[in-house]
Amino acid sequence: MAEKLAFHGGPKAVTVPAKENWQREVEKEKALVCKLIDEGCLSASGKGSGFPEEFENEFRKFIGCKYVAFLNHGSSALAAGFYAAGVGPGDEVIVPTLGYIGSYCGALWLGATPVFCEVDPKTLLADPKDIEKRVTKRTRAICPIHQHGRVCDMDSLLRICRKHGITLIEDAAHAHGSMWGKKKIGNVGHIACFSMQGSTPGGKPVAAGEGGIFCTNNREFFERHLAYCHLHRGGILDELKNGKYKHLEAQVLGYKWRAHPLALAIAKVSFSSINYRNRRRIKHRNQLRRGLEKVPGVELVHDYPKAKAAGFYGGLTLLYNPEELDGLPARKYVQACQAEGIPVSGPGVSHLEHLRYIYTHGFDLYGRKRGQLLKPLTKPGDYPISESMRDKVLTFPAYIDPPDGLMKQIITGFRKVSRNYGELMRE
Ligand SMILES: *Cc1c(COP(=O)(O)O)cnc(C)c1O
Questions:
Q1: Residues lining ligand 1, Cβ inside 6 A
Q2: Which of 253, 271, 289 is at the close of a domain?
Q3: How confident is the model at residue 47 (pLDDT cuts 50, 70, 90)?
Q4: Residue where one domain finishes, among candidates 271, 288, 309
Q5: Atom 15 (ligand 1): residue with closest C-alpha?
Q6: Cα 96 to ligand 1 centre (Å)
Q7: Does pTM top 0.90 for this prediction?
Q8: Of 154, 186, 255, 421, which one is least surrounded by beta carbons within 10 A?
Q9: 182: CA distance to ligand 1 center in Å?
Q10: Residues 228, 321: one domain?
Q11: Could you identify the atom of ligand 1 that is nearest to the CA of residue 99?
């Protein structure tokens, strides 16, 4: 018996308001910001080093890695990561085309060329098999993204790096608290960088307004990143122990990309709830995964067996399989779900880097016809797997505290649309 879809004027499956009840702790933010203003902690050089340093230590314990530093943006932390790894003119760095220019532009400005790779169509994460095919003598680093907090295949990526003597720089902008086996991201690869952009709960999982975090277990990488962009950091001359950097002045190599203490105050309040938010989001994600198991046409994106996703910036990713619904276009499926009151959006992916103008047309990066992008690098069709994802990827909110019964009604709604897809084929 066909039920009448809400799309055709039937009753909606979702009657509970699809909203997030968890709220940002604004009063706590105000209190900590005011305290730091009263104490005169406005810069992390000299006297201001107390609070930022304590918070760095706390975050280091959370991740479990040896070295942590706070920066002004996630993209600057990644840029410092490329410098730390010795990326320079003529080098290549492998990055997913289903990615983000802020992730790897640090390498571009150091004179390296991005080499894009495909994603694994089950996980939508940088595909190690495809990466390996693109390694050349010039490859210096791989920079995969733990998209939406889902963890890349770290064992395969580290194996490729060992085999070819290259560095793994993880873009962990979305992945605060994500794990690979028993270890947190930031304590698994060579260098991992987090973003603290935006505000909680919609921003990066630990949010400062603007901010970034550099993590490593490698002293050489840590010191090289300090020398690159921590001009006048409190105590920097004591931190630089390596012979190569110990003769530098307190201005080191001139860039000053450290985090603002008042931004860190906002982040500190956000950090205090990260475990709670991750736990709740994981619970609702598991509920959705189980609920969709027998629903044709749509499923939660897959995780690698050792991966434990967390963070979930950007929401949860669903994969739409039109073959299971006689080729019903994703757009139609989404419209019908939305009519039922399901907060799902798509189809679409955020960015396909190889389709950017600067790569398809070439770009005079330094002016006067210089730089590594003078000729086109890529063209549409070069990355068929990633391109096909534009018609398959749906996005769903990562709820922390949804109203009672909402998740259940949403799952019922997906079932209803998938069961009655035939009604949508008829028009
Ligand atoms: C946000 C983000 C970054 C960079 O972070 P900013 O703090 O905004 O500089 C890098 N990569 C990805 C995938 C991001 O979403």
A1: 73-75, 100, 102-103, 145, 171, 173-174, 195, 197, 204, 212
A2: 271
A3: very low
A4: 271
A5: 173
A6: 14
A7: yes
A8: 255
A9: 25
A10: no
A11: 13
Whether residues 88 and 184 share a domain: the answer is: yes
How many structural domains comprise the chain?
2
Kindly state whether residues 141 and 79 are assigned to the same domain.
yes
Are 203 and 284 within one domain? Answer: no
pLDDT over threshold 70, residue 46: no
Place of tokens 């475990």: 275
Counting ligand 1 atoms within 8 A of each CB, the residue from 101, 197, 257 with the most, and so the one to mutate, is 197
pLDDT band at 49 (very low <50, low <70, confident <90, very high): low
d(CA 193, CA 117): 20
Q: Is residue 172 part of a domain?
A: yes
265 and 282 fall within a common domain: no
* Residue 151: inside a domain: yes
**What is the atom index within ligand 1 of the atom nearest the CA of 212?**
7
Average pLDDT, the chain: 96
Domain assignment of residue 381, yes or no: no
Whether 78 has a pLDDT exceeding 50, the answer reads yes
**pLDDT score of 98:** 98
Closest CA to 320 of 348, 342, 284: 348
Mean pLDDT, residues 82-87 taken together: 98
pLDDT at 1: 54
Give every CB contact of residue 123 below 8 A, 6+ residues apart in sequence.
Answer: 150, 153, 301, 302, 303, 304
Ligand 1 atom closest to 145 (CA): 13
Asked whether 376 and 363 are in contact (CB, 8 A), the reply is no
Q: Which domain holds residue 151?
A: 26-271
Q: Which of 102, 101, 144 is nearest to 125 (CA)?
A: 144
Question: Do 311 and 178 contact (CB within 8 A), yes or no?
Answer: yes
User: Of ligand 1's atoms, which has the minimum distance to the CA of residue 174?
Assistant: 15
Is the per-residue pLDDT at 48 higher than 90?
no
% of the chain surpassing 90 pLDDT? 94
pLDDT for res 3: 85
Q: Determine the pLDDT at residue 44.
A: 80
| 3-class secondary-structure state, position 305 | coil
For the domain that residue 300 is a member of, what is the CATH number? 3.90.1150.10
Q: Is residue 356 part of a domain?
A: no
Q: Are 61 and 151 within one domain?
A: yes
Q: How many CB atoms lie within 10 A of CB 312?
A: 28
Mean pLDDT of 143-162: 98
